[in-house]
Amino acid sequence: MELEAQLVDLLTKQTAILERMDKKDDLKTKTPANFGTAVELHGEGSLFGSQSIEREVVSAHIRPQGILGAIPWIPTVYTTPFFASITGFSADVGAEAAFPCSDNPVTMMKGCNLTASFGRVARDTRTIEINDVMLKRNRGDYTDLMLYGKLLGLTGMTPAGMDESDVLNVVTKSEMVAAGVSLERILNVWSFQGNPATGNAGGGYKPFAGLDRQIATGQVDAETNSACAALDSDVKTFGYQNVEDPPNSLYDIVRHVSTMEAFLRFNAQRMGLEPVQYIISMRPELWFTLSDIWPCQYNANKCGQTVVDSNVMITLGGENMIAARDAMRQGMYLDINGRRYPVLLSDGIYEATNITGPAAIKAGEYASSLYFIPLTIMGGLPVTYMEYVDYRKAAPDIALLGGSQQFWSDDGMFFWAVEYVKWCYKLSVKVESRLVLRTPQLAGRIDAIKYRPLQHFRSSDPTSPYFADGGVSMRPDQYYKHVW
Question: I need a labelling partner for 424 at 20 to 30 A (CA). Which of 193, 232, 377, 462 fits?
Fold first, then answer.
């Protein structure tokens, strides 16, 4: 009877298991990434092992460039910071005293709090099977390939250890570098174009607010939504006029830029915030065009001879103007109102075309913005910087998981996780960060500047029509004659 009871019990459990298997939604299983296996570097049908290639491998990959490498990265664990400012003092309230001891008018200090929220983005590697990391095609499949060129680093936003060494020979590092490339591209775009409203509802993907939304008018208090006009940025438009057109009273690029610089410097001086360290940022195509015309327009508002009065003439020599242009391009600077400002190029800045922009932009023309970005005030206090979730603070909890395959890099900036399924594994990496602009009243931008370059530069953005790659990620296996 005891044996029969055991059999009944086993049959009951088996029936329950079969019923659960029939209900597929109830089964939760770990699976590798759904994007195919990793790019095989060596072995049969691999990227570099299929043929006896030369040792030197040359890069044609365009790296993104932007401001993220020029501003500090500060660790934090605070989700909702408030950045306080004194916006001024109210107008006097009350009547003038009628008698010596009567009440006098009073004034009140006013302030405004700004805030910033984290963005979040994560990337996976493709699934790696352990065989792929060690198998070679034959003794002629060499793993001493050397990369000439760079894959990462122009923005400063790449995980530590993700350098190019061994990226041609070590599969896991190759996949991690690919994830780093993807993160660098998207964060570079977010630095200017980031819009939290474009994130998904679940919170797995959420851009932080970029400079386009922080260098703005209409600043408000984070708690009361009260207008804070004293913190408004200086935002101008060039009206989609071509920067190379002859200057006129309304659309003179030197006048626009010089006036903005004077306005922002006035703010800094009167607010007691000097010295301010600025950078000017723009797209490479705009910089190439602007630097071409700036020396002439800056020095005399036009080239050739200009009659000042009946006895005096200004002559601008072409050779001198070319030398000034070349010096600007080599030194990456712009002279404005007697001060020299460093120029930092970014292809993360939005660029309008004849397809995406207004009718004023014709085929072959483009339009984008120029930015004045304050980096520090009063000789060293950072006012434009990145903050990131410091994953190191989770160390006590992670330690309780008993050998969990999770780790961080770059002082807690990047958080990695490893997931295993039998002989396969994949890595995931995430970063949660935000761009902070503490002094929007010292920042400015000029929108709708149109230009017509002879040739547009290549882009690091895969969605751009000026992006180029090509080739293959995997090669077909070769088949050989054999007796079987």
Answer: 462
Residue 105 has pLDDT above 90, yes or no: yes
Q: Any bridge partners for residue 345, and if so which?
A: 282
Q: 58 has which bridge partners?
A: 148
Identify which of 30, 116, 69 has the alpha carbon closest to the alpha carbon of residue 428: 30
In the chain, domain spans: 56-85+111-451
**pLDDT tens column, 135-190:** 777 777 767 777 777 777 656 555 665 566 667 777 787 888 888 888 889 999 99
Q: Does domain 56-85+111-451 have CATH number 3.90.1690?
A: yes
* Termini Cα distance of the chain: 57
Amino acid at 391: Y
- Give the residue from 254, 256, 213 showing the smallest Cα distance to 237: 256
Instruction: Say what the pLDDT of residue 157 is.
Output: 55
CA angle 289, 292, 296 (to 5 degrees): 135
Long-range contacts from 249-253, C-beta under 8 angstroms, 24+ separation: 252/297, 252/301, 253/290, 253/293, 253/294, 253/297, 253/449
pLDDT of residue 49: 65
d(CA 52, CA 221) in angstroms, rounded, equals 64
